[in-house]
Task: structure prediction
Amino acid sequence: MVIPCLNEAEAIAIVIEKARRTMADEGIVGEVVVADNGSDDGSPELAAAAGARVVHEVRKGYGSAYLAGFAAARGRYILMGDGDDTYDFTEIARFVDPLRGGADMVIGNRMSGIQPGAMPWLHRRIGNPLLTGLLNLFFRSGVTDAHCGMRAFRRDVLPTLDLRSTGMEFASEQVIRASKSGLDIREVEIDYHPRKGDSKLASFSDGWRHLRFLLIHSPTWLFVVPGALFAIAGLIGSLITLTGVELFGREWQLHAMIASVAAVIIGAQILQIGVFSKAFAYYYLGERDRLIAAMRSRVRLEHGLLAGLGLLGIGLVIAGVVLGLWIDRGLGELREERLAMVGLMLIVVGLQTIFGAFFLSILGLRRRPHTGDPDAG
Ligand SMILES: Nc1nc2c(ncn2[C@@H]2O[C@H](COP(=O)(O)OP(=O)(O)OP(=O)(O)O)[C@@H](O)[C@H]2O)c(=O)[nH]1
Ligand SMILES: [Mg+2]
Result:
């Protein structure tokens, strides 16, 4: 059992005693490791006196403490839980049994067992549901309470998880890595009690750390989805303006065209960053990605260049037509703004595609063979 501890003098001895007694009662052979990084209230001494092995980590944070604790742990299974007496450590066996039955990871679900005063309204009704909802949307983990601090897993999945977060977002990272790796995750319903001592959780900065983590680990939701929405909305808007279809009781004019073209260009840019990020994650982070895997086997630099040149060419032709019309009218008044905007859009997106295709090739330089590739050894 690993317990992270930062100034938990009020509770640390109680929780260690509960964990040790329960393990003895249930016939679970194990030890309690307390991972401390800089408590100044005597918690480490109290922990050692209560029979825990205390490890010290210099780097601050909940994640750093756990990483040090995991490195020191020796058992077949690792149990995790706060040192503030919010989780009931007499329920350890309920986490170990599923592991013995073949699960890779077991995570508590506090949602129907939150005791009065255990979790503030902001976390219970907003923060936790919102962040857990996004986590499930982005990574399809199917976990009900992604921030539950009482968990257990087989120690031999640690290299697969490859955890790195130093702060509270460690909790999200563990769930995301487990579901990306296809581990068998099970849930156990538990109660959540009011903590002893002061909370170390800062609602907004820690909430943001979780959100930031979710976003930068999902190029699909961070870039591809918003980029595609921008591009599609812009394309529809330009079509409506160009064809002169009446919508909302009037024909769309130049301003609608400018907005639409801007949306297409912005969308194309965001989409492109999404493809770059996915390629980076595929080549260098070992992520599985169907889009990049399919692109890699079928699309070459030259395809990207041809597509870009095609768009650029059409854009230039349109620009030429507009120029021709102008010359035709004796260099007089010209009212082809909408067509000119379409030409501009194609030229911009075409050039962007050409240079983007080169950049994608640069990203692929010096990559290591990917485990997902058919040709990888
Ligand atoms: N070593 C170490 N432990 C930490 C650090 N931050 C938090 N912890 C411990 O990690 C556990 C979780 O922190 P809590 O303050 O309980 O956070 P929480 O459970 O999300 O919030 P509460 O519901 O208020 O308890 C506790 O056992 C803390 O003592 C840290 O920077 N270093
Ligand atoms: Mg806690």
About this structure: The longest strand covers residues 105-109. The chain has 13 helices and nine strands.
